[in-house]
Amino acid sequence: MSDTTTRLIAIRRAMLAILLGLSLAACEPTNTITSTVQAESAPAHTGDLQQATPESVGMDSGRLERVTQRMQEFVDAGQLAGVVTMAARDSKIIHRSAVGYRDIEAGDPMSEDDIFRIYSMTKPITGVAMMILYEEGKFRLSDPVEKYIPEFKGLQVATGVDGSGNILTEPANHPMTIRELMSHTGGLTYGVFSPSAVDDKYNELNILDPDQTLQEFIDKLATVPLRQQPGTLWHYSVSVDVQGYLVEKLSGQKFSDFLEERIFEPLGMTDTDFYVPPEKVDRFAQVYGYGPGGTLVPQEGFGGANNYLVDQAFESGGGGLVGTAMDYLRFSQMLLNGGELDGVRVLAPLTVEIMHRNQMPSGMGNGVLGAGGTSFGLDFAIIEDPVAAESYSKGEYYWGGAAGTWFWVDPVEDIVFVGMIQAFGGPNGQVPNVRSASRQALYQAITESRQTL
Question: Where are the beta strands (DSSP E) in 6-103?
Answer without folding.
Answer: 50-51, 82-89, 92-103
